[in-house]
Amino acid sequence: MDAKNADTSLSAVAGAIAEPARARMLCCLLDGRARTSTELSVVAEVSASTASAHLNRLRDERLVQMVAQGKHRYYQLAGADVAKALEALLVVAGLPRPEFTPNTPSRLRHARTCYDHMAGSVAVALHDQIAAQGWLLAAAPGAADYTLSAQGAAGFERLGLDLAALRKLRRRFACPCLDWSERRPHIGGALGAALLQLALKRGWAEQDLDSRALSVSAAGQRRMLAAFAPA
What we know:
The structure is a single chain. This protein is an alpha+beta fold. The protein folds into 2 domains: 3-93, Orthogonal Bundle (Arc Repressor Mutant, subunit A), CATH 1.10.10; 106-227, no CATH class. It is 50% helix and 16% strand. It contains 11 helices and 11 strands. It has helices spanning 3-18, 20-28, 37-44, 48-60, 80-93, 106-110, 121-132, 150-158, 163-168, 189-202, 218-227; strands at residues 35-36, 64-69, 72-77, 112-114, 117-119, 136-138, 146-148, 175-178, 185-188, 206-207, 214-215. The protein has a 3-stranded antiparallel β-sheet with strand order 1-3-2. Strands 4-5 form a two-stranded antiparallel ribbon. A two-stranded antiparallel ribbon has the order 6-7. The longest helix is centred in the first third of the chain and has 16 residues, at 3-18. It is elongated, with a radius of gyration of 20 Å.
């Protein structure tokens, strides 16, 4: 590594973190959830225009990335390496990791529909389990859609999902959909819609007749997560 270039890059990143408002933004994002520029401006105690300038600086240094969800724009840490570096700095500073406190009604936060797929903490937990065991893969660095591993394809087909038919639909097959209460992704696209129908068919979840809320008991959630464990 070129020592001169390394020093320059390090000082640029350190300078981006060192500004108090930007540091507050980064610490706020350490819980892994995404937030809007407006929310981060409140956290940083700066105006909207100043927050935008700060976020541009953090993006330039590859500390945060922007995620588009419909008409909204969210910001999150650029990756695990950024989170680890910030965690280490917090340890040196002797400060605790900040906690996320959602303001979404608890029933909707737990489980609800998002268009035609499942959202809420239950859906985020399902996404995380499927991804952690290697069924769900990013198509390429920075890609917007997911692909399935061979193990994942076999697992979904074992549960009765017709993947060939889902891929033929005139829509995205599988994609991360940012959950507006959890601020972390659940599974959207044709695969997400199929998973919701599977959950309803298997009795893991029940849909309200007059709202987007889904009823998912603790036992139902355990059965659902167990069904997506490797064979």
